[in-house]
Design a protein that fits this description.
mainly alpha; three-stranded antiparallel sheet; 3 strands
């Protein structure tokens, strides 16, 4: 870690606990909103907590949904474009197809997620995803 990175990390320590709490709160709200709207999402195991480094939904026509969200001013990312079994460093470890991993790698789409995400912006993002998935 260089000096600049160290300075940034040290400055962020003062809000670390707050930021973790906010991410959990925002992630849980995303969960409720997407569950109510019928949009599939990554599920957290019962009794486990996520700090939601990113928030990921599952969509069928990812290219089209991503395009519609971009047009609506909603940034997206694809954090896992290929399953580990298709990455050169791990290909030798896999003996046979992994259909679940392969399907999910084609469907995952990450949405804006940060501790400063307002309720209004979160509502706008969820609404835009619902519209984009429905093709409206």
């Amino acid at each position: 870690m260089d000096t600049l990175q160290c300075a940034i990390v040290l400055a962020k320590f003062t809000r670390f606990e707050w930021e973790i709490g906010r991410r959990v709160e925002i992630g849980e709200r995303y969960n409720r909103l997407f569950d109510q709207s019928g949009i599939q999402r990554v599920i957290q195991r019962e009794g486990r907590t996520s700090v939601f480094a990113q928030y990921t939904v599952l969509v069928d026509d990812r290219v089209q949904v991503q395009r519609r969200l971009h047009q609506a001013g909603i940034p997206t990312a694809i954090h896992y474009p290929a399953p580990l079994s298709k990455q050169p460093a791990y290909e030798h470890c896999v003996h046979g197809p992994l259909p679940n991993s392969e399907e999910l790698s084609r469907r995952v789409l990450s949405l804006p997620m940060h501790a400063d995400l307002s309720v209004e912006l979160q509502d706008r993002i969820v609404g835009a995803v619902v519209q984009a998935v429905s093709g409206a």
